[in-house]
């Protein structure tokens, strides 16, 4: 079973409509959403690590490994006050990229 993301990542329900995949079976949509959230979480983690001092990077990685989401959120609120903005930015960037790539793939598949 996949680990839950330590970040509160929201993806619009209409993303599959925007991708041209509104008729995709719910099971496939769920799998895609899980993958999307995992990718966004990885991108958010990378940006956060870049902003942290070396000691704080180690602490952050330890918290991620433990999977204590409330401790992660508390740590980030203290060290990266705008971490929610980073999550929103990475979510939007990923959504734009994913929609573009899927639409391009569907066009070439015709």
Summarize the structure.
By secondary structure, the protein is mainly α. The chain has helices spanning 15-19, 26-51, 54-66, 69-79, 83-109. It has one domain.
Describe this structure in words.
The chain is mostly helical and 110 residues long. It has one domain (26-105). Helices cover 75% and strands 0% of the residues. The protein contains five helices and no strands. The protein has helices at residues 15-19, 26-51, 54-66, 69-79, 83-109. Helix 2 (26-51) crosses helix 5 (83-109) and helix 3 runs antiparallel to helix 4. The protein is elongated, with a radius of gyration of 16 Å. The mean pLDDT is 89.
List keywords for this structure.
single chain, 0% strand
Present the secondary structure layout.
Blueprint: H1 15-19, H2 26-51, H3 54-66, H4 69-79, H5 83-109
Helix pairs in contact: 2-5, 3-4
């Amino acid at each position: 079973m996949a680990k839950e993301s330590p970040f509160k990542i929201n993806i619009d329900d209409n993303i599959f409509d925007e991708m041209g995949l509104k008729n995709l079976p719910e099971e496939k949509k769920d799998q895609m959403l899980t993958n999307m959230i995992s990718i966004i979480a990885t991108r958010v983690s990378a940006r956060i690590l870049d902003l942290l001092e070396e000691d704080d990077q180690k602490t952050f990685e330890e918290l991620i490994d433990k999977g204590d989401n409330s401790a992660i959120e508390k740590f980030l609120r203290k060290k990266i006050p705008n971490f929610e903005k980073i999550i929103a930015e990475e979510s939007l960037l990923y959504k734009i990229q994913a929609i573009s790539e899927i639409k391009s793939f569907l066009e070439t598949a015709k």
